[in-house]
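Sample entry (231 residues):
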Amino acid sequence: MITMKNIERHYSNGFVKTWVLRQISLDIEEGEFVTIMGPSGAGKSTLLHIMGMLDDASGGEYHFLEQPVRKLKEKHRTKLHHDNIGFVFQQYHLIDDLTVYENLETPLLYKKVKSSERKGLVAEMLDKFQIVAKKDLFPNQLSGGEQQRVAIARALIIRPKLILADEPTGNLNSTQGEDVMKMLKDLNDEGTTIIQVTHDRSKADYGNRIIHLLDGWLDGEEEIDNALAIH
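Predicted structure, serialized as tokens:
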């Protein structure tokens, strides 16, 4: 699904280059649940944003679904991203002045899905994530766990091949965090590829592989056997 060769990212300030990622080469297969770990400033979120086409690499090659992302025209790249990738962020990124129902419907409006199909897909997500009773509430009327549940449902409603999750449990208590991780694990079991960034080793154990970053460099990979045997 993802192939990266010598991906680099730097920011320039006058004549000074600040390197965020250096020579990252990795492959991620369809159906994997991969965690990116490393200390603050290691480049984790930047790597995730490049994978999701929210940011562009400064150098190297990135292929997503065999498409050469860095060589694509903006329109083609945007379509590839919208059709295949769902995002879940630590801060939820729900639209404050829209109800739960309207937040879920928004990605479908961007894709010009017909009204009758939109209603069916939103109803399916409300039921799947047990938030039917919350559909007319606004984000500020929900708990953190409920907001993240809505955010995951919104990411999933386009039926993406890949979910990118940046510290998805960072603002949640331990029980809410575990609920979110179980949701992501269930989605992975159903065939959705998951890539998450986390500082928490217990959350990483839900996946099958960990990619370690340090100071922008790949600092090793780790396979996880029988990931959820202890949960």
